[in-house]
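Lab notebook, bench 4. We co-purified these components, and the gel suggests they stay together. Before we commit to crystallization screens, I want a quick structural picture of the whole thing.
Request: model the full complex, all chains together.
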Amino acid sequence: MEKSTDAELMGQVLKKNTRAFKILYSRYEMRVYNFILRYTGNKEIAQDLLQETFTRVWFAAHLFNLETGNFRGWLYTIALNIARNEMSRKRYAYDYAEVSTIAFKDEPVNPRTEEPDAAVERADLQNAISQALLKLSPLLREIIILKHYQQLKFKEIAEMTKTPEGTLKARFHRAIAELKELLDPREL
Amino acid sequence: MSHENKDTLLALFYHEVTLPEAQKIREHLADCEDCRKYMHLLNQMDSALNQWPEANPLPDTFDRILATIPERWHASHVRPAVSARPIFNIAFAMVAILLLIYFVQSRMSQLPFWPAFEQNWLVQTLGSYGFVALVFFGLGAFITLALAPILYFDLNKRTLHI
Ligand SMILES: [Zn+2]
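Here is the predicted assembly.
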């Protein structure tokens, strides 16, 4: 079953096969988790929403088209809707920059392979990137995450978000320009 | 050659152009400072974004997901799988009942009191097979009703299993 396609596994999930569900989960957990983590900038929320995404996959399996469906696109659409929904709630309507300062404090650095200065610099840079991303408006952040980190094609993102490719590319240019502004003082 | 727009450069950067198209854009890049600058910016931002590494979710996440499933089972709208098995089961049971009726009737007609019994109005009306069927289903219904409280009523939980 490990070598089955995503669609074949979804056929099994439809029959309430939890083994198939687990294989699908392991294929996509990292992608979905990091997608939501970069979108929300918060590990606890990312953890919750990862669970929510896959719970929804289980219960909405009958809505997936086994013949023509693209599972990856379908899964990202679910995760994106959940992430958008979460971020639009009132309780997160404060300055994202405040949230993101906590982002990398708990990441361990390897003392043997890295000079202390280099480690600090690396953590600073990570922090700067995450803060800059979180300062972008949600639609600009979204396109950077889907395109750069998740490596989806513009065509796929267009289908998922029901947005013309031209609009997405325009957003990408704007996001890049804003990121450049936000990161420039650090002379990357 | 015309000045390339930023969308084309973006498509080139993410390998979303055909080979001949890529060739054409590269030729243009060779003698266009502006486009080269934009490609450089894309490169710069790409390596900056790569500085944010991936993180891992909690190792027991899948078990947590499974744990939430039974509670939400009734909230889902799952279509039952269509199967021919129930039809075969019913057909098999019906054949078995008909064979049983046939067998009982053939045995009853050998009993010494059968010729007198045959004159009864009920047997006259229903025919011998019909009469056996009536006795058979009557007994079945009686037993079911008699056992109903035991079958459906769980004494420990005091709830009906319907
Ligand atoms: Zn040019």
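Chain B has a mean pLDDT of 81. Worth comparing against the SEC data before the next meeting. Helices of chain B lie at 6-13, 19-30, 33-49, 61-72, 85-108, 114-117, 121-152.
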